[in-house]
Design a protein that fits this description.
Elements: E1 2-8, H1 13-26, E2 31-35, E3 40-44, H2 49-58, E4 62-69, E5 75-78
Helix pairs in contact: 1-2
Length: 79
């Protein structure tokens, strides 16, 4: 499943590494892409979106929104 998070508080490569590492602590195989300019974090993972959101929050960043996409293209919103 692909999950796209909108994250506030990221401003540098250290932030990118912190968010990436926090997600990979929950799923070592996760594919993580961080776009600092937009605040978007895209994750390909089998873990539930809520668990990954909690990991980002615990790393000190604020998730303001999230959307999920199954491999079939379906989408939804995580609150």
């Amino acid at each position: 499943m692909t999950i796209e998070f909108q994250v506030e508080g990221m401003s540098c490569q250290h932030c990118v590494a912190a968010v990436t590492n926090a997600i990979r602590e929950h799923d070592e195989a996760a594919q993580v892409q961080v776009d600092l300019a937009s605040g978007r974090v895209t994750v390909e993972s089998a873990q539930p979106a809520e668990a990954l959101k909690a990991a980002i929050d615990e790393a000190g960043y604020t998730v303001t929104g999230a959307a999920t996409r199954a491999t079939t293209g379906a989408s939804g919103t995580v609150r």
